[in-house]
Design a protein that fits this description.
- The longest helix is centred in the last third of the chain and has 18 residues, at about 60-80.
- The model has no long low-confidence stretch (mean pLDDT about 80).
- The chain has a domain at about 1-35.
- The radius of gyration is 23 Å and the shape is elongated.
- It has helices at about 10-15, 20-35, 60-80.
- The chain is built from three helices and no strands.
- It is an all-alpha fold and about 80 residues long.
């Protein structure tokens, strides 16, 4: 599937292609047109480790909690002046 032109996302939707597929195709076409090839990359292996959290705790919310605590501490520090 190769889609080009100014209204590519609109044309893609009409033809039943996903936005992601259109973007990937356009990126591949742009890289190919530039004449540069991408160097081979080494594979990366990530090993997950258990966090020991109890069920119901969302580890993704920890950063939000830290941000909120830092903002509160900042406000307290600067409002005391």
């Amino acid at each position: 599937m190769m889609i080009s032109g100014r209204n590519s996302p609109k044309k893609a939707g009409q033809k039943g292609h996903s936005f992601k597929a259109v973007v990937n195709d356009l990126l591949r076409a742009g890289i190919a047109a530039s004449g540069e090839s991408l160097p081979p990359r080494n594979r990366v292996k990530v090993t997950a480790k258990p966090l020991g959290l109890r069920a119901g705790h969302d580890s993704g919310k920890f950063n939000q909690l830290v941000d909120e605590l830092e903002a509160e501490a900042f406000l307290n520090q600067h409002s005391a002046r």
